[in-house]
Amino acid sequence: MTDVPVPVRPAVRGGLRAAALRVHAATPQGRDRAVDALRACAILGVVLGHWLVTALVSGTGSGTHPALRTTSPLQHMPALAPVSWLFQTLAVFFLVGGHVATRGYGSSRARGVPYGQWLRARLSRLFRPVAAVLTLWAVTSATLLLTGADPGTVRALVGLALSPLWFLLVFAALTAATPLLTRLNPLWPAAVVLHVDLLRFGLGGPAWLGWLNLPAGWLVPFTVGAAWTRGELDRRRAGWTLLTGGAAATAVLVALAGYPASMVGVPGAAVSNLNPPTLAAVAFGLAQCGLALLLRAPLRRAMRRPAAWAAVALVNLSAMTVFLWHQTALMATTAVLLPVGPLAGLHTVPDGPGWVVARLAWLPVLTLALAVCWAAFRGFERGGGRRAPRTVRSQSPGAVTAPGPRVGA
Asked: Does 15 fall in a domain?
């Protein structure tokens, strides 16, 4: 008897297409899908950026196990600074966050929802996944130290794993202040950043002044998002003004004022554009906001395709899980393969083009490791595994629900 081949792939493709069609059909016609697409792009940009500019190099430590230290290809190959321009997308996330928060707060007020209830709903979606990250890394760091791991390695790993939390704290603070920010002009926080940088770099002020820019710097794109909600940025001219003005200001600041070309921190560098944000980072963020606004119409057209919308919905479904666990996926991959190494692009010094090619080849492995983290911990973002309504809520404050779980951060 001749075996009849089973058409597995067509069946899989058919199932995926059917699922995409269900998500597409369940989404209200009035929903601005470009908002979710921009959020997904921002999250994926941060993830890819960290994976491409973060390296854990193996060496000899003080413990009984091999040590790992943090470095970056940007430190050894400054010509790669444009990579940071592509993948440092936090301004877009704050832009979308400001737009969604102000829109959602206005909608809640119209429905008579108390501020406290609105804020709890917003922040619970942000912080539910944090408990799992903190618990796992508390146990992991204690275990590593008790088994003789190099203390410097433990500090480096914990620092990387918990580094996304600063973003959540700033984002949560701005979200809580939404009622005060709905009418704030972005020029006011930008002026704060300008004066802080003048004091720091021009007049020799103390370095700690820079931390005033942490809320002020990210308040700029957040309030640009509020202006979007007010309808002040609907014309394409607004997007072009932000894009060209922000890009020109960034170029002048880098070329003439001595700001770093990299838009992320570089180990060993005297000044970081990101930690805390500088005027150059704010100008660059405004350019990104302008580009995001210009992409709204093309994204809305692209999101009419069920497959594209389903992919965006999937990313938004676990946005915080992906964001919080992507560094852990990188470190887990590096640590698990350390006994085999040193492996190029994973444990070696990122000092040449060969490392870049090797790291690109590792991206599918890192994606698989992140998928494992997602499968293990996504329930925390969904409220401890509780079943969510099987509807898609239109214009909800920062979240969309595809059939089943919630989509959005």
From this structure: no
Q: Which residues contact 131 (CB under 8 A, 6 or more apart)?
A: 380
Residue 16, domain member (yes or no): no
Could you tell me the residue range of the domain that residue 254 belongs to? 53-383
Sign of the Cα torsion 241, 247, 252, 253 reads: positive
Rounded to 5 degrees, φ, ψ at 28 are -60, 150
Q: Tell me the CA distances in angstroms from 222 to 78, 178, 333, 355, one per residue in order.
A: 30, 9, 35, 36
Tell whether 128 is covered by a domain.
Answer: yes
- Domain total in the chain: 1
DSSP assignments along 153-168, one per residue:
HHHHHHHHHHTTHHHH
User: Per the domain annotation, does 138 fall within a domain?
Assistant: yes
Is residue 14 helix, strand or coil? helix
From residue 79, how far is each of 82, 274, 346, 361 by CA, in Å? Answer: 7, 18, 20, 21
Quick one: the chain helix, strand, coil %, rounded to 5? Answer: 65, 5, 30
Beta strands in 209-262, from DSSP E residues, in sequence order: none
Could you read off the pLDDT tens digit of each residue along the chain, which spans 409 residues? 444 454 545 655 667 777 777 887 778 787 899 999 999 999 999 999 999 999 988 766 554 566 778 899 999 999 999 989 999 999 999 999 999 999 999 999 999 999 999 999 888 888 888 988 999 999 999 998 888 888 888 888 888 888 888 888 999 999 999 999 999 999 999 999 999 999 999 999 999 999 999 999 999 999 999 999 999 999 999 999 999 999 999 999 999 999 999 999 888 888 999 989 999 999 999 999 999 999 999 999 999 999 999 999 989 888 999 999 999 999 999 888 888 878 899 989 999 999 999 999 999 999 999 999 999 998 887 765 444 444 444 343 344 433 333 333 3
